[in-house]
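Assemble and predict.
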Amino acid sequence: MGERTRHLVAALTGLGLGLAALGPGLAPGFVLSYDMVFVPDPAFTSMTFGLTGVVPRHVPSDAFVTALAAAVPADIVQKLVLLAIFVMACTSAASLVPSRRLLPRLAAGVCYAWNPFVAERLLLGQWALLLGYAALPWVVAAAARTDEPGGTRRLTRTLLPAAIGGFAALTVTAIAALTVALVSGRPRGGLRVAGVVGALSLPWLVPGVSRAGGVPGEGTAVGLFAARADTPFGAAGSLLLLGGVWNGETVPSGYGAPVTAAIWLIVVVGALVAYGKWGRGLPWWRGAAVAGIAGFAIAGLGAVAAPVLEGAIGLWGGFAVVRDGQQYVAPLAVVVAAGLGLAADRAAEARWPGVAAGAMAAPVLLLPTLAWGAAGELRAVRYPDDWARARQIINGDPEQGDVLVLPWASYRSYPWNHGRRVLDPLPRYLHRRVIVDDAVTVGETTVPPEDPRSVRLAPAAKTGAPPAAMLRAEGIRYVVVDADTGSIRPEGEVAEMLRGPDLVVYRIGGAASAAGDGVPVAPVVVGWGIASLLVFWSIPAPGTTLSLSLLGSIKPRRPDDRRRTP
Amino acid sequence: MRIAIAALVGALLATGASFGAVQLANASQKDPVIKPLYNYGSR
């Protein structure tokens, strides 16, 4: 079997896993879950590029989706992106196992594409983070080979999914790549990684640092987003098992039961031992191990040493990036997957095919509730007709003015979305500047808003009846109420443009010009230009494709390589 | 024979009645989400 065929089988396995995981989410419509917001016919607006002054966490992933949606319906784009995560994750992890046997490679691929990390982050709707996660094994391999001819270009290509994912995906990936490059004894490689990551970060970095509010950092939220135990082994044990997401509602049903969690612990520990024992000949072995340990330490910081993290955030708000700790166990997932593949390879070599097959099947058997849309949690829904009518009215209006969304809260549990929580989709659904509450409430605690306009409007909006005169002065032309439609209404002279069971639209005449909280456009354009040039530079000459060059980035082990392994 | 037919008809009626009762109960149930919740989740 040729190398390409092996990659193809791994990709098809990943596709099968993706189809199994998404299940009812593949029906026509959109899967809306927590941070996962896709809308029909998205448009390029100033928000897409982070020009409105909000924290640009959605840059450039929203631009990527909007560009794809110009050619393919947006609900299809969502399904393709989600399936691509599984395909890339399985293929990239499989390529790390230096074996000509298929089963060990698939064991690594399946483990990396189907584990608690993927399940919990998928339920939390963090598809952009998962894009970076899916390509991380390629990045790890490429970061250890930056000094080879074409090494920097290869590294840039492997970083592309994380760059599309944006802020969180690139941060997690950058930490792993830098660690691998430096630990592999390549200081120049570290510089190259830093340079490439820096350039690819510009689309979100430039609007992020030039926004009026600066870099946000709320130290009090450390406790909210710290890793939590979702197995009987505590927060640290849960992180070791690649789970431990902060949100208790996004743990797959049934995960963490004592028996299955104990078996999964044996699998993970066995994989780590196998990695330590049989992976030493691999160029990225030490770097990935250190990245895994470092990631694990960062992941546990909020849970184990919260005051340290709070103090660090107090010194510089940028440290808030490690607040949501669990996402940093991604490099550990690479190590676990590679270790499982190595163990399966040894088992196959010892003519224990049952053990090798068991290693491949274990992640799925121990986490069956990721299947079928995480046991029915991820379902495709259609936006109500009221929403389409509201968009028609608001987008068709030539008058200037922004949109205020009520009730004043960032997340919704719409009945038409089966009550599943989701970030309010209206800022993406409408093609105007939409002001929503961007404060985040977890349980009884609220993290303050970051958008300067939200901060200004919050006191009035919280009442549920903001005065129309005040909204007019703030440049608001429309108020859209997308929940509790019977009890919330702006006070004063407003025209009711639409009333439906799911949405009400009010118009306020004579909206003033909005205060300029936006970021300067020119530096953002330059940032996009530099990042785009780097991407174009990295793409190989005609005759090859990006996917093939990614797949071909990992050389198979030669038969005599085993002899060098102690 | 008549007893067998009666038993069959009785079984069919009972099946239909129970099926109808379940359908009616399901149809009369409201959506479990009565009030919008605004949290980002809970720990």
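The interface with chain B takes residues 34, 124, 224, 228, 246-250, 407, 409-415, 418-419, 421, 440-443, 483-484 of chain A (CB under 8 Å).
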